[in-house]
């Protein structure tokens, strides 16, 4: 895990390098569950194909990875939003 300095703060990111140490880049956008070992595994697999992979914490404004709160009812809120967007 590395730290990327931003205006007004910073964010964590996973950086996975191919065996050659360089190559074309992939920006890996994580899902709602955040940076976790499974994201690291996927980034390393893609790096094994010859790509440099960067997976930043896109929810950095909500806190660092260990401090992100578990939001009760978040899946229900998502379903409500999907239903409303279809109407």
Task: Please tell me about this protein's structure.
With 87 residues, the protein is an alpha+beta fold. It has one domain (2-86). It contains two helices and four strands; from the N terminus they run βββαβα. A four-stranded mixed β-sheet has the order 1-2-4-3. A hairpin with a 2-residue loop joins strand 1 (2-6) and strand 2 (9-16). The longest helix is centred in the last third of the chain and has 13 residues, at 74-86. It is globular, with a radius of gyration of 16 Å. The model is unreliable at 72-82 (pLDDT under 50).
Secondary-structure map with pairings?
Elements: E1 2-6, E2 9-16, E3 25-27, H1 37-48, E4 52-56, H2 74-86
Parallel strand pairs: 3-4
Antiparallel strand pairs: 1-2, 2-4
Radius of gyration: 16 Å
Q: Return the domain count.
A: 1
Q: What best-fitting shape do the alpha-carbon axes yield?
A: globular
With helices defined by DSSP (H or I, 4 residues minimum), what is the helix count?
Answer: 2
How many beta-strand runs?
4
Strands side by side in the biggest sheet: 1-2-4-3
**Helix and strand pattern:** EEEHEH
Q: What fraction, in percent, of the residue positions are helical?
A: 25-40%
Question: Which strand-content bin applies to the residues?
Answer: 15-25%
Oligomer: single chain
Contiguous uncertain segments of 5+ residues: 72-82
What distance separates the N and C termini?
41 Å
Q: How do you describe this structure in short?
A:
The protein has 87 residues and is of the alpha+beta class. The chain is 29% helix and 24% strand. The protein has a 4-stranded mixed β-sheet.
């Amino acid at each position: 895990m590395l730290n990327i300095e931003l205006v007004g703060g910073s964010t964590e990111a996973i950086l996975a390098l191919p065996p050659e140490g360089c190559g074309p880049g992939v920006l890996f956008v994580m899902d709602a569950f955040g940076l976790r070992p499974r994201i690291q595994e996927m980034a390393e697999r893609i790096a094994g194909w010859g790509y440099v992979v960067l997976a930043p914490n896109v929810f950095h404004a909500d806190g660092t990875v260990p401090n992100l709160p578990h939001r009760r009812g978040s899946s229900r809120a998502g379903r409500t939003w999907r239903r409303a967007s279809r109407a």
